[in-house]
Specification:
mainly alpha, 146 residues, single chain
Length: 146
């Protein structure tokens, strides 16, 4: 079975982010808003940074003898709050400095990165499931912990 942590390939995501940034800068240059493409790339970079922090947090929390869901939830909430604050600060700062809304590209970059991340981790898992199926032992519902 291929788990999402195994399917998570940071270098592949970095290459995809660089390619998407190049496309965004090129497309936004045609509309006269090159900075939107640059800020879009910054948003993708923030998303990749967040994904790396998620990986590190999951590894450290699950390495303990008794991993707690609460630890993971608090970690996720704090990390997302900081990443969102950074993205909004960049976006608002760009509006102040450049007198346009190109800084919104950061938020679009973050959103698109999440879609890319989901696709890049779920496609290998789905391919593995289709090729070899799930190897899950049958358990009566009364013995299930859910």
């Amino acid at each position: 079975m291929v788990f999402p942590s195994v399917a998570f390939r940071p270098m592949r995501l970095l290459i995809v982010c660089v390619a998407l940034t190049a496309v965004a800068v090129t497309a936004s240059a045609f509309t006269g808003h090159v900075l939107f493409g640059v800020f879009f790339g910054v948003g993708l970079a923030l998303g990749l940074f967040n994904a790396m922090l998620v990986r590190k947090a999951v590894e450290s929390i699950t390495a303990s003898d008794h991993p707690l869901k609460k630890k993971m939830a608090v970690n996720s909430a704090m990390r997302l709050m900081v990443i969102t604050a950074v993205a909004l600060t960049i976006s608002i700062g760009a509006k102040t400095v450049f007198k346009n809304n190109d800084g919104l590209g950061v938020l679009f970059g973050l959103a698109i990165f999440q879609a890319v991340l989901v696709m890049s981790t779920s496609i290998p898992v789905m391919k593995k499931i289709r090729s070899s199926g799930l190897d899950v032992a049958e358990m009566p519902a009364s013995e299930s912990k859910d």
